[in-house]
């Protein structure tokens, strides 16, 4: 359970994120409703807050097989059930949202949550929001560039005059409400492109990297590039924060974690690959390779997870770690058990080791 009031956490921040996927259970074939999935996400955030985790993120999709499209609404509901945990999007598809509306929504969330709102902005793995909101996928990158530029200006100024290509100009416009924090923390979600790392460094915003498989060391050049560009642009090194995100599952032993997680993880990727028009499933042999000690997939005992986080910390010196532990139709009971293990057995040791 959470430590006494007034506690402080040293070391890296540790938390969770969810995309709210609605997958059929691989054992029963049943699919829970969006209503139940949303209620379970709120309950997971409440458990994470009570257990003393630092951050909870909610993703954005505009599909019937995901429960969350209105991320600020979800986070506002979570804010009313929690007291301490930071609340972030994970990620906001910035190319297809009006930056002014986005700022107003998250500034309001910041006021509702007593200063706990953050944004991870990305371009999104799916493109259904482009036709849905009247945007052209050919403008994929240009929209993101313009919108993040505008958002950062909104974050700095109560009044703004601005002109761009994709939305109407602003003339001495009042931007309200203002958040409780001096500025909303904003991170750019990065999948692996040097261009994204360069942009995050140049803008001086945080960089959240999704590392889902393989050797995490391949992402070190990306982190080095981000910090190099950021400092050369004039940003203070301490302000250039790196977050690592990835899939995870924790159980009492590593073998138990692998045995329990494999059906759900294979189910998840089969499902996602079908959404993308791709075939193929994950064999047990492939899964065993994916969960090896030197890989980025956070599946194992608390000790195994600790070792993986600390190995990545040696590589990146990052400030935040977030795990997605509720994918592929995993029953909520297992999610709750994972939250407890992450908070009570993994987080204290990782915080201690990374605060040295």
Provide the fold topology.
Blueprint: E1 13-18, H1 34-51, E2 55-58, H2 71-81, E3 86-89, E4 92-93, H3 99-112, E5 117-122, H4 129-132, H5 140-156, E6 159-162, E7 170-174, E8 186-190, H6 194-203, E9 206-210, H7 220-232, E10 242-250, H8 254-275, H9 284-290, E11 298-300, H10 302-316, E12 320-324, H11 332-354
Parallel strand pairs: 1-2, 1-12, 2-3, 3-5, 4-5, 5-8, 8-9, 9-10, 10-11, 10-12
Antiparallel strand pairs: 6-7
Helix pairs in contact: 1-2, 1-11, 2-3, 3-5, 6-7, 10-11
Order of strands, main sheet, comes to: 1-2-3-5-8-9-10-12
What would you call the shape? globular
Order of helices and strands: EHEHEEHEHHEEEHEHEHHEHEH
Q: CATH topology, anyone?
A: TIM Barrel
Number of helices: 11
For the secondary structure, the number of strands is: 12
Please give the domain count. Answer: 1
What's the Cα radius of gyration? 20 Å
Distance between the termini: 24 Å
Strand content: 15-25%
Q: State the helical fraction.
A: 40-55%
For the biggest sheet, the summary is:
8 strands, parallel, barrel
Overall CATH architecture = Alpha-Beta Barrel
Q: Unreliable runs, pLDDT <50, ≥5 residues?
A: 1-8
CATH superfamily: Luciferase-like domain
Quaternary state reads single chain
CATH class group: Alpha Beta
Overall mean pLDDT stands at 94
Structural class: alpha/beta
How would you summarize this macromolecular structure in one to three sentences?
This protein has 356 residues and is an alpha/beta fold. The protein has 11 helices and 12 strands.
How does this model look, in words?
It is a single chain. The protein has 356 residues and is of the alpha/beta class. The protein has a single domain (13-354), classed as TIM Barrel. The protein has eleven helices and twelve strands. An eight-stranded parallel beta barrel has the order 1-2-3-5-8-9-10-12, surrounded by seven helices. Strands 6-7 form a two-stranded antiparallel ribbon. Helix 1 runs parallel beside helix 11 (332-354). The model is unreliable at 1-8 (pLDDT under 50). Keywords: Monooxygenase, Oxidoreductase. Residues 14-315 form the Luciferase-like domain. Pfam families: Bac_luciferase.
């Amino acid at each position: 359970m959470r430590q006494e009031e007034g506690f402080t956490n040293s070391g890296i921040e540790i938390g969770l994120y969810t995309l709210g996927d609605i997958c059929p259970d691989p054992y029963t074939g049943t699919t829970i409703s969006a209503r139940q999935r949303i209620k379970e996400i709120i309950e997971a955030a409440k458990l994470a807050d009570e257990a003393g985790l630092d951050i909870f993120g909610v993703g954005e999709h505009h599909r019937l097989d995901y429960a969350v499209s209105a991320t600020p609404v979800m986070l506002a509901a979570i804010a009313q059930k929690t007291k301490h945990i930071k609340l972030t999007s994970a990620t906001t598809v910035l190319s297809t949202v009006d930056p002014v509306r986005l700022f107003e929504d998250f500034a309001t969330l910041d006021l509702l949550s007593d200063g706990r709102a953050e944004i991870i902005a990305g371009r999104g793995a799916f493109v259904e929001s482009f036709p849905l909101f009247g945007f052209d996928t050919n403008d994929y990158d240009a929209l993101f560039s313009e919108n993040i530029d505008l958002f950062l200006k909104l974050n700095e100024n109560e009044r703004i005059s601005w002109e761009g290509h994709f939305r109407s100009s602003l003339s001495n416009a009042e931007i309200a409400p203002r958040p409780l924090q001096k500025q909303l923390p904003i991170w750019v979600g990065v999948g692996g492109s040097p261009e994204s790392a360069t942009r995050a460094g140049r803008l001086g915003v945080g960089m959240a990297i999704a590392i889902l498989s393989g050797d995490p060391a391949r992402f070190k050049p990306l982190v080095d590039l981000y910090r190099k560009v950021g400092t050369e642009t004039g940003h203070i090194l301490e302000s250039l924060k790196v977050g690592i995100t990835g899939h995870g599952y924790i159980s009492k032993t590593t073998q138990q974690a692998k045995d329990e997680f494999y059906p759900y993880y294979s189910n998840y990727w089969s499902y996602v690959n079908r959404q993308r028009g791709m075939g193929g499933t994950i064999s047990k042999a492939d899964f065993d390779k994916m969960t090896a000690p030197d890989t980025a997939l956070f599946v194992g005992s608390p000790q195994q997870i600790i070792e993986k986080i600390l190995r990545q910390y040696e590589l990146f010196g990052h400030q935040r770690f977030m795990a997605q532990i509720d994918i592929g139709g995993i029953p909520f009971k297992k999610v709750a058990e994972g939250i407890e293990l992450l908070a009570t057995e993994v987080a204290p040791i990782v915080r201690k080791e990374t605060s040295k």
